[in-house]
Amino acid sequence: MRYLVTGASGFVGRYLIDAIRRDEPAAEIVAVDRPAAAPPANVTRVAALDLLDLDALAAVIARERPDRLVHLASFSSVGLSWHEPVVSFTNNTNIFLNVLECVRRSSPQTRVLSIGSSEQYGLVAPGDLPLRETTPLHPLSPYAVARVAQEHLGEVYVRGYGLDIVATRSFNHVGPGQSSRFVISALAKQFAELARGRADRIRVGTTSVIRDFLDVRDVVAAYLALLARGARGEVYNICSGRGIRIADAIAIFAGFAGGTPAIETDPALVRPVENEIVVGDHAKLTAAVGWRPTIALEDALRAVYDYWLTA
Amino acid sequence: MRYLVTGASGFVGRYLIDAIRRDEPAAEIVAVDRPAAAPPANVTRVAALDLLDLDALAAVIARERPDRLVHLASFSSVGLSWHEPVVSFTNNTNIFLNVLECVRRSSPQTRVLSIGSSEQYGLVAPGDLPLRETTPLHPLSPYAVARVAQEHLGEVYVRGYGLDIVATRSFNHVGPGQSSRFVISALAKQFAELARGRADRIRVGTTSVIRDFLDVRDVVAAYLALLARGARGEVYNICSGRGIRIADAIAIFAGFAGGTPAIETDPALVRPVENEIVVGDHAKLTAAVGWRPTIALEDALRAVYDYWLTA
């Protein structure tokens, strides 16, 4: 089996490639990433290119004709999308459209996994919880609009051109190596600094909100299960199905660090519009492929905390 | 009042500029179009650029800071979007995003009219007719996806950045000068050829389908009414509210031409997936701005037919 992974050097890419290597030692893995990225060592080949360069991408797809393509490349920050909406949109929607177009032209048998986001749901009404795949989408940021357009393009390429695409709406995920731009990683990093005596307080955004977090190892297990057994043209939530308040994650980290620090609210971390509760329902995914989350939240948080203790 | 019109040289652009000139003789009109386009003579200034060139566009918007911006530029063919999905998407969604970004950066007081399409509704369930702005969108072509993304980006720029954007979902429009890629213009052209003894039959696609056609003069009247009195952040159907079967349009043209010709179905004109009926409801537009269609369909068809008799 030949895999092509875009964004292979990113946080999720490294876990995905490790999981493929573990499950399928003989798999060929082609890592696609920007020239400046440092791809993982355990891949078969590396292709360095900008996914906005359609011709460069077309040459790689035509040469590799992968069995499975996992499109992880994304500018996935909501905050960045507000500062640089054009960069965010092109590096989400346009790069995905380029991937699909190259697959259509020269490798139409490739199964494509299109990674989307719980941000696509946008402003959530209390009656919509937990979020199901049938819940209407009300994208509220440039990033969310870009992800909705990506999912719509996938549908059109399935129905109109017969491509084999499976889509996800992935909820928050956590794990060692994630950028501290994301809340759990940011908290773990600050508590690790605290435990090492390098800080005396932590800075937070809105701690009352409830989110649905998955360990990145469970996320990549879902991706591989969908590649193997997901239904063509369908979209699946990837989530734990359980909400945790940010304040509760803070309490767990305080337990690891052995004490409750001073906590300051940093206005720069508070978003102008924010959902109180975002929790998904993974019943469709579980029914389709048998996937369930396996890693308890406390274990997931511990791994992130331990990572920052030595990072 | 200073207007900036993108796609100023196109079919709708010429009618819009004529209408502005008629209503507001002293208006400044800045025509933006591709270097290869031939802009109308009755504008104040011309800016030749590719809207995908963000820097070139930014310079024009910063210099002109128009009161009103009408974004007519579009690759508006559904058929083209299936052949060239990347070209279609970038020349709809990305050019619009560039327009909004330039307005946000240097002319945030500009009122923007975002032109969308009835194609955004996609596959229509019989219970959804007539289509209202609240009907869910199920875009079914690359073009339709691009237009939905455009509308979503508009919403985000209104809510997130406070821009002043009014959006439309414009249904089929007809008028002299429209490309014969569009069905009514194609039929009129063929009947004109027939009347001039240059053809002995006409070629058609699926004639049983029902569509909602507006004369382009009514369309541009709606655009100017929305610029003057539309509500910021809202989207409005622009349609006649009445369906006509393509076969009935053929019968009207046969009346003009003085006889019923041989009619052949051209498989190239039959679409793989097509709605039986697309009819909109313009109640929201009428309530908001007082607009109603004023030109009877037969008069609209006559104008198109007369155009092709001498074209």
Please give a structural write-up.
With 311 residues, chain A is α/β, with parallel strands linked by helices. The first copy, chain A, folds into 2 domains: 2-173 and 215-238, Rossmann fold, CATH 3.40.50.720; 176-211 and 242-310, UDP-galactose 4-epimerase, domain 1. Helix content of chain A is 42%, strand content 17%. Chain A contains 10 helices and 13 strands. The first copy, chain A, has helices at 11-23, 54-64, 78-83, 85-106, 142-161, 183-195, 216-229, 246-257, 283-289, 297-310; strands spanning 2-6, 28-33, 45-48, 68-71, 111-117, 164-170, 173-174, 201-204, 210-211, 214-215, 235-238, 244-245, 262-265. In chain A, the strands form 4 sheets. Chain A has a 7-stranded parallel sheet, sandwiched between helices. In chain A, strand 5 (111-117), helix 5 and strand 6 form a beta-alpha-beta unit. In chain A, helix 4 (85-106) runs parallel beside helix 5 and helix 6 runs parallel beside helix 8 (246-257). The mean pLDDT of chain A is 95. Chains A and B meet through helix 4 and helix 5 of A and helix 4 and helix 5 of B.
Short description:
Two copies of one chain form a homodimer. The first copy, chain A, contains ten helices and 13 strands. By secondary structure, chain A is of the alpha/beta class.
Task: Please indicate the percent range of residues of chain A in DSSP E strands (runs of 2 or more).
Answer: 15-25%
Number of helices of chain A: 10
Categorize the overall geometry of chain A.
Answer: globular
Task: Give unreliable regions of chain A as ranges.
Answer: none
Approximate helicity band of chain A:
40-55%
Rg for CA atoms of chain A: 19 Å
CATH topology of the largest domain in chain A: Rossmann fold
**Based on the structure given, which CATH architecture of the largest domain in chain A is correct?**
3-Layer(aba) Sandwich
- Helix-strand string of chain A: EHEEHEHHEHEEHEEEHEEHEHH
Most extensive interface, residues per chain? A-B, 30 and 30 residues
The main β sheet of chain A shows up as:
7 strands, parallel
Number of strands of chain A: 13
What average pLDDT do the residues of chain A reach? 95
Which structural class is indicated by helix and strand composition of chain A? alpha/beta
Query: CATH superfamily assignment of the largest domain in chain A?
Result: NAD(P)-binding Rossmann-like Domain
Q: Which oligomeric form is depicted?
A: homodimer
Strand order of the largest sheet of chain A: 3-2-1-4-5-6-11
- Under CATH at level 1, the class of the largest domain in chain A stands as Alpha Beta
Q: What distance separates the N and C termini of chain A?
A: 35 Å
